[in-house]
Amino acid sequence: MSSAPARRLICAAVVAVGTATACVWAPSTGVDDGIADLFNDAQRPRMVEGRTYTTQPVEASVGPHHFLFPANLYFNQIGPFPGGGVVLTVLWPALQAAPPGDYPLRSVEDGYREVSIELRYVGRGRAADYLAPGLTGRVALPTRWGLTPYAVDREGVGRDVLETAPDWYVVRDGDGRVTTFISCDPWEYTVDGVLVEDGTLVRGNGDRVAMCWHSTLDAGYGIAMEVRYARVLLIDWQLLEATARGLMPRYEMRR
After folding, report:
1. Helix, coil or strand: residue 244
2. DSSP 3-state assignment of 126?
3. Structure letter (DSSP) for residue 250
4. Which of 215, 148, 203, 244 is nearest to 7 (CA)?
5. What residues make up the domain containing 162?
6. Number of neighbouring beta carbons within 10 Å of residue 253
7. Gyration radius from the chain CA atoms
8. Confidence (pTM)
9. Does residue 125 register a pLDDT over 90?
10. Could you give the CA distance from residue 158 to residue 29 in angstroms, rounded to a whole number?
11. How buried is 86 (Cβ within 10 angstroms: 0-12 exposed, 13-18 middle, 19+ buried)?
12. SS (H, E, C) 53-104
């Protein structure tokens, strides 16, 4: 396997956003009436634990590109991480930012719905090979949801390898270049951990939530988008990817 996919498999913070307007939903059980009122005005500044959270734009730099993302769209609802790392978060199913001040109060159930998007500058020079995984030892399976699965070749492979090897999914363009690479916890040995019920995600069987790490690239910007979400949402991979791709042109600073 090439070095780029290997890094993606261990990436912990990585997904994308549609709009600056935050999604409004019913607050988690146990939120008092005063806080509940704030959820009904998703644009209103909000003080939580001594910090004021807003929807005001905060500048982020990814390579030579500059963006003005709403503060509540960032993973921490504040801005880029120390050192300049840019990770954004939207919540399924609306794929919009949470109301300002939601981050420090987010429930476990809300956490299941998080779709995180890390933006990494890789440069136009690396765009051609960044997503090209080494598929030696993998076998292509019939297409599913527009993705080509690549399973571990079971010939001479022990169970310990099969239980830990992630499932891989690949999309190629007409010239055979990889445009999307997704690595997920293996279906055969890891249950979803959450279920979709009436448009929400609820805890299911298993001791953890199975996850996917979804990589794609905007060659024009030379920016890779590393998206992380619960595996049960893989069926919506095209929508998640489109949401991520729409981030940069929407919030790019025009100088």
Report:
1. helix
2. helix
3. H
4. 215
5. 3-251
6. 12
7. 19
8. 0.81
9. no
10. 46
11. buried
12. ECCCEEEEEECCEEEEEEHHHECCCCCCCCCCCEEEEEECCCCECCCCCCHH
Phi, psi of 115 (to 5 degrees): -120, 110
Residue 163 burial (10 A CB sphere; 0-12, 13-18, 19+):
exposed
The number of beta carbons lying within 10 Å of the beta carbon of residue 195 is: 14
Amino acid at position 69, single letter: F
Cβ count near 144 (within 10 Å):
11
Which residues does 236 contact at the CB level (< 8 Å), separation at least 6?
92
- Of the spans 3-7, 88-92, 151-155, which averages the highest pLDDT? 88-92
79-91 pLDDT tens trace: 999 999 999 999 9
| Number of domains the chain is built from | 1
Give the pLDDT confidence score for residue 17 in this predicted structure: 38
pLDDT at 10: 32
Tokens of 100: 């300002």
Nearest 5°: the CA angle 238, 75, 101 is: 120
Q: Which residue type sits at 92?
A: W
Cα dihedral 7/12/16/20 (nearest 10): -140
For tokens 């598929």, what's the residue?
Answer: 135
